[in-house]
Amino acid sequence: MAALKPTVFVVEDEALIALELVDRLQARGFRICGQAAHGEHALQQIPTSGADIVLMDIRLAGRMTGLETARRLRERCDVPVVFLTAFSDGRCLKDADEVGAYGYLVKPFQVDELNATLRTALNRHALERRLKQSNADLHRFAAAISHDLRQPLRAVAGHLELLDRQLHQNPDHGVRERVQMARNAAARMDAMIVGLLEYSSIGEPAIDGQIEAVPVQSSRAALNQAIEFLEPVTTACGASIVIDGDWPLVEVDGSDLVRLFQNLIGNACKFRQVETAPHIRVHATVEGRDWSVAISDNGIGIEPRRLDDVFGVFSRLHGRDRYEGFGLGLAICRRIVERYDGRIRAESKGENLGTTMVFELPDVVVQPSEHVQPEPER
Q1: How large is the average pLDDT for residues 318-345?
Q2: What's the mean pLDDT when you consider all of the chain?
């Protein structure tokens, strides 16, 4: 059975050029599903045209440019756009990238260039759709597994609790100890499932730097909220937290940012030296639109050869008898940072020499704020 021909919608306001494009496309095995000379007409027709791809001039007659047309089109349907332009300056190409163009051709161009650019864009779009579908399936699978695994665990825990109550009336310390061990094991398994579900629910890493738009968030407000959530922990261990540096408005989901701070500062409290109160410094730096945060502590440190190991799923450098947890916290932090095309790393000179966790988020700063002098919070 012959493969279906890809369908192209052409948006070009010069009739002779549009006619030539149609002839070239048909000669290369494409099917034309529609044409428009103005952005307004294109927006009306493309969503219902069945187009696999749109070939659009950047400069169009009428009130809307090709760039604005493409921006609005993304809000209505998932169709890749390849731009035509007579200009190849950096500003023009940057504008095309910002509206999510899948490619652009500078006039005049050869028919082989047109064919290759369109087919490359179609292949990329098909891969991205499969990736999105795969991610959606993974999230549904994780939710189903979470429910199906936690249901019998709840039943086991419930029966063990009833058995524990009965044994309390007729004590047999050996049996009660084994029952308590079983209850603890069930609770750990339930917590692991919850952690995995949290890990899988975090937004996917950016594709070519493009992520869904997020509201502007005060980075300092997110930090304050995380510290407020951690107050029982910081009070119990006598932690002191010093905040300084640059705390701008950023395009980062607020819940992601709070979770990031909560995990990193929580770890600084957890992995403290015996009989030593944690001293934590949170320092932020802005360079252009890039933002980085370093969280330093005076804790137990990390062997330099193990610095990369701490970000793996279920990665633990210490036994559960010393520190509780399942090795998911830093894996979640890495997943959050990578969602924004950022990087995270650990720095330490060795055992009992403290640790610094650094995350860097590119192109997220919306409005810089004043520099904050060292300010003790606890």
Answers
A1: 79
A2: 83
Say yes or no: 197 and 221 in one domain.
no
The single residue listed with the structure tokens 């692991």 is 192
SS3 375: strand
Which two tokens mark 313? 């799923």
Residue 336 is which amino acid?
Answer: I
Q: In this predicted structure, what is the pLDDT of residue 133?
A: 76
Q: In terms of DSSP bridges, do strands 356-361 and 365-367 run parallel, antiparallel, or are they unpaired?
A: unpaired
> Cα angle vertex 337, ends 204, 306, to 5°?
115
Put the strands of the sheet holding 53-57 in their side by side order: 31-36, 7-11, 53-57, 81-85, 103-106
Structure confidence at residue 55 as a pLDDT band (50, 70, 90): very high
pLDDT digits (tens, 9 = 90+) for 291-309: 999 999 999 998 888 888 8
Residues 6+ apart with CB under 8 A from 18: 10, 12, 35, 37
Residues 258 and 145 occupy one common structural domain: no
pLDDT, tens digit, 9 for 90 and up, residues 76-88: 999 999 998 887 6
Cα separation of 337 and 364, whole Å? 12
From 201, 225, 250, the end of a domain falls on 201
Q: Is 350 helix (H, G, I), strand (E, B) or coil?
A: coil
Say whether both 303 and 258 belong to one domain. Answer: yes
Name the strand (E) or helix (H) holding 294: strand 290-296
With 60 as the cut, is the pLDDT of residue 241 above it? yes
Place of tokens 């579908």: 133
Q: Give the domain range for residue 262.
A: 217-376
CATH number of the domain at 30, please: 3.40.50.2300
Report yes or no on 2 lying in a domain: no
CA gap 45, 9 in Å, rounded:
9
**Nearest residue to 281 via CA among 266, 258, 298, 304:** 298
* pLDDT-derived band at 357, boundaries 50, 70, 90: very high
Confidence of residue 375 (pLDDT cuts 50, 70, 90): low
Domain C-terminal end among 109, 139, 168: 109
| DSSP-derived 3-state class of residue 30 | coil
